[in-house]
């Protein structure tokens, strides 16, 4: 499984706790972040208080694909 596919799996499994965004830059507000994934140079943190993800270690192209995937998950979640 590729790094991107693994990241998608983690996002899908945790989407209910982070419906307000996915970013690839550190927050500057010092929000409390919990690391939920660290493998193959990819790190995914979640902020439970404000419900968003921070993803590091993907290429720009991989992150763009992950953003689209995240958006699709949210759209499908709200349609149910």
Gross morphology: globular
Instruction: Determine the mean pLDDT.
Output: 95
Encode the helix/strand succession as letters: HEEEEH
Q: Span from first to last CA? A: 28 Å
The secondary structure category is alpha+beta
Using DSSP, what is the number of strands?
A: 4
Question: Largest sheet at a glance?
Answer: 4 strands, mixed
Properties at a glance:
single chain, 80 residues, alpha+beta, four-stranded mixed sheet, 2 helices, globular
Overview of this structure, please?
The chain contains two helices and four strands, in the order αββββα. The chain has 80 residues and is an alpha+beta fold. It has one domain. Strands 1-4-3-2 form a four-stranded mixed β-sheet, with helices on one face. β2 and β3 (42-47) form a beta hairpin. α1 runs parallel beside α2. The longest helix is centred in the C-terminal third of the chain and has 20 residues, at 60-79. The chain is globular, with a radius of gyration of 12 Å.
Quick description:
This protein is of the alpha+beta class. The protein has helices at residues 3-14, 60-79; strands at residues 22-23, 34-39, 42-47, 52-56.
Fold blueprint:
Blueprint: H1 3-14, E1 22-23, E2 34-39, E3 42-47, E4 52-56, H2 60-79
Parallel strand pairs: 1-4
Antiparallel strand pairs: 2-3, 3-4
Helix pairs in contact: 1-2
């Amino acid at each position: 499984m590729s790094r991107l596919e693994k990241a998608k799996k983690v996002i899908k499994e945790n989407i209910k706790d982070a419906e307000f965004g996915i970013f690839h830059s550190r927050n500057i507000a010092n929000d409390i972040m919990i690391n939920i994934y660290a493998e193959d140079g990819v790190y995914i943190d979640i902020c439970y208080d404000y419900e968003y993800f921070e993803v590091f270690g993907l290429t720009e192209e991989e992150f763009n694909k992950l953003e689209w995937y995240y958006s699709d998950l949210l759209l499908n979640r709200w349609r149910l």
